[in-house]
Write a structure and sequence with these properties.
The complex is a heterodimer of chains A (86) and B (208). Helix content of chain A is 65%, strand content 0%. Chain A is mainly α. The chains are: A mainly alpha (86), B mainly alpha (208).
Chain lengths: 86, 208
């Protein structure tokens, strides 16, 4: 089947996740071979996901880990308190 | 994405057996995840940090009830989501509780933005701080239900099934929300990328 651009866009997220079936995948790839617009959309979306997964994009507050483990240490040192959260 | 492998299962058994200190090691790989999960809901650094601490303490206190049907990471994420939502409810007031549900029905324009000159944008552009900042802002501005799914899936890299488990929604809903979140971000960031490209070109033009 020959796909139009709109059809490709509808499946772009699943295509990136590799969760479209083999036939659709093939159709999308055939479309991408000759469609600059869809290729650019796919590339830009992929790059946004790469940037999202990059630890430098979403940083933790400075000292977060130290404070967390400090708090945890206090909790571990305190007597068992199963009753307060049942 | 770590699995609840043999080591983790053993670690949990030892903690429950009395070696409490090992909980520090159990939680270490997931402390970033706990923070980002709460942050995606409350969108405030201080609240997110307090909430992540509460979630971790709660996971420790309830560790005996972790049965291993889900991964430990998914279980912890669920606790973090609940903690985040509890804080959000407190901040917003209960009256607005149903707002998120309405967003699902909303018909929006989920068409990506075309950009002809993406290929001319050098890869180094992705290294630019401005782009990271623009992405952070765009994610923060996503509707809540899209941001939650996007955070678990694309930031914390849970798979579709784990994301659905953690949020208590169907895998179909995860896919729809994820698709919309990604397209909305693509649309938001394209204008930013477009202004970036000519700037790079003129820079190289001058240099030559």
């Amino acid at each position: 089947m020959k796909l139009d651009c709109k059809h490709v866009w509808e499946h772009i997220s699943e295509y990136i996740d590799n969760s479209v079936d083999a036939k659709l995948r093939e159709d999308i790839e055939r479309h991408l071979e000759h469609c600059e617009i869809c290729s650019a959309i796919l590339d830009s979306t992929r790059n946004i996901l790469i940037l999202t997964a990059d630890d430098r994009t979403f940083e933790l507050p400075v000292g977060y880990s130290e404070r967390l483990h400090e708090r945890l240490a206090k909790e571990l040192a305190s007597p068992e308190q199963d009753s307060d959260d049942k | 994405m770590q699995t609840t492998g043999a080591n983790e299962t053993e670690l949990i058994a030892r903690i429950l057996g009395g070696e409490k200190e090992l909980f520090h090691d159990l939680i270490r790989p997931y402390e970033r995840m706990a923070y980002l999960t709460v942050y995606s809901i409350v969108k405030n650094e201080t609240e997110a940090e307090d909430g992540a601490q509460e979630a971790v303490i709660s996971a420790y206190r309830h560790l005996a009830s972790f049965r291993g049907e889900a991964k430990f990471s998914t279980w912890l994420t669920t606790i973090a989501i609940n903690e985040g939502r509890k804080r959000l409810r407190k901040a917003r007031g209960a009256a607005e509780d149903s707002i998120d549900e309405l967003a699902e029905e909303k018909e929006g324009d989920y068409t990506p933005a075309p950009l002809a000159d993406w290929r001319e944008i050098p890869l180094e552009a992705l290294e630019r701080k401005e782009l990271r900042e623009a992405l952070r802002v765009a994610v923060a501005e996503l509707p809540d239900i899209y941001r939650e799914v996007f955070t678990l899936r694309d930031l914390e890299e849970l798979n579709i099934v784990e994301t659905a488990q953690a949020l208590g929604i169907t895998t179909g809903a995860v896919k729809v929300r994820l698709h919309r979140a990604r397209i909305l971000l693509q649309k938001r960031l394209v204008p930013f990328l477009k202004t970036m490209a000519p700037a790079r070109r003129s820079f190289f033009g001058r240099a030559r």
